[in-house]
Transcriptional regulator
Amino acid sequence: MTKALSVWITSVLIVLGIPPSAGAAELLMLEQPGCVWCARFNREIAPAWPKTPEGQRAPLRRVDITGPWPADLADITRERFTPTFVLMENGREIGRLRGYPGDEFFWFRIDELLAKLSPASQG
């Protein structure tokens, strides 16, 4: 799916009042331009994320904290520290990881968060 199509589908869902993550888990990545730790995550983890079991259970959704806050995230506390990863399920926050601790520790911490998902989202 192209990025333009994905954005269009998300926009339609929001207009219809359906959160894009309804019935599913997603991993928000709160980021901002110039964030060196975001760039490191993008090199070390991002390319593999969608191909992993973790990425299949919780697809990555990027949110630029310097831009408008998405309407479907109105109940989610904003962050000034980036990157911050927020695990969401059915539109609510399950937990968050502030900062990027390096590739090995990241996988450990994300696995801890994913273990908190409901059995339906466990995959």
Notes: The two ends are 22 Å apart (CA to CA). The first strand starts at residue 25 and ends at 31. The chain has one domain: 21-121. The chain is about 30% helix and 20% strand.
